[in-house]
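May I ask you for just one protein sequence along with its backbone structure tokens in two labelled lines?

_____
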Amino acid sequence: MDTSIMFTPKTIFSFMLTIEVLFFWSKFLLRSLSNVHHSLQKKFWFPHDLQPKLRKYSSFISKSDNNSRNETLVFHMEDALLRSSSLFPYFMLVAFEAGSLIRAVLLFLAYPFICLFPKEIRIKMMVFVSFFGIKKNKCRVGSSVLPKFFLEDVGYEGFEVLMRHGRKIGVSDLPNVMVEGFLKDFLGVDVVMGREMKVCYGYYVGCMEERRNGYIDSLNQINGEEKINSLVGFGCLGKTLSQEFFSHCKEIYLVSKSEKRKWHNLPRHKYPRKLIFHDGRLAFRPTFYATSLMFLWLPFGIFLCIVRACAALFLPCRIALPIFAFSGIQGKVSYSSANERAKKSGGTVYVCNHRTLLDPVYVSMALMEPVTAVTYSVSRVSEMISPIKTTRLKRDRESDLKMMKEMLKESNIVVCPEGTTCREPYLLRFSPLFAELTDDIVPVALDMQFSMFYGTTASGLKCFDPLFFLLNPHPTYTIKFLDPLPASKSFGAGGKSRYEVANFVQTEIGKALGFECTSLTRKDKYLMLAGNEGVV
């Protein structure tokens, strides 16, 4: 019996690839371990004249605001600004949103092993798992997903220190691609000194550059001709302070861990820039514990998603609604005279704000009658699986107006004039096309609370939007049918312009929900989150 091994080109290639991967990891770990002592020594060591510069955080409170305005603050983002010390949630967001579910599972399984290493190596290992193989020009998680979670983790007291200074330099141990969008766009930081990622043929290789260049040039640029001793440092007591960045500071204020535990969350109304748009599927902060609950929920959630979807597609509303309630979907509906008026006239336009793709479906269920959904942009898959009739507009005013008038003769229609969804308590600009259809207009105020997954996306696959919504354990829909549009405020009988009608309806819905009205559009949202104009 011949037991010799056949060395085919395929087996030779597999063997060489395995050896190369093992060699890379062994080299990476050995190099990291050998540099731990030197890196820590470099971070802990300061010149002798720096020691008297250290100050307690409490002494900063008594400083004059005028003096602070003339100083440049050098702060460490993770140690001096964020309340939580764990970086796992941010890498999990990168792995899940920019990568895939498989990558997120790998990071989750590897994290207990990663925790055995010092902080510097932990960060490098999480960077490798989260970023390896991701295309650089497709990775927008740093500007579209992470800012929301960073803002929710900012300590109000640390934020006040930041805002008291005229010029700000943010230092971070995280990759620049993760923190730059948050620090510059939402906190107004002048210079961000994070870690640059290595790129090969347009893809991240999962490694960071060892050195951060351009710090002195940045100091000279933002300080102009002022002396360099106008720098003030802000860090955390007991944490490492890099000599490279903090040795130039005339004073360094350190906050203790016990003081940070007393910090409060930054209130939403204190955000320097309003958080209106953000992307991503995860609706919760993915700590290790919360992520473990998500993975435990997924098998049961998928089964529940199938049950809910089948009920919506194949069962009448009167039977489907109890199934929804039993499976955890909560609905709150309040009516006015609009419902009765719609039945008498037979041609009512229900104008609602846009929270998810299922808005027209829920309006139809609340009315207990079929309606036609008029959409500005929806995927073909969503059209095919919709339980109600759906019509796509062509974005040509004359042809769209003619088509909608024909549909209005047959049934009531539901239109979302924002043209896209908005997750936060804001209303985008209403397209005025609906105002010319009829004077029989009923505003409908919609709100939605997600418990685990967002049922909307700007950069992902929209055909999965309904599935992610149905995966939630306890989603809640709130529907308020407002009073019909008064004749004096209508386009026909009232003589108002279509823009005045659209603005009036937007204002009424905003009042009912407590949302703020804006003039932002679908184009603004997609340019910010996806880098395109949102054409599906």
Summary: Confidence is low (pLDDT under 50) at residues 1-7, 15-19, 36-50.
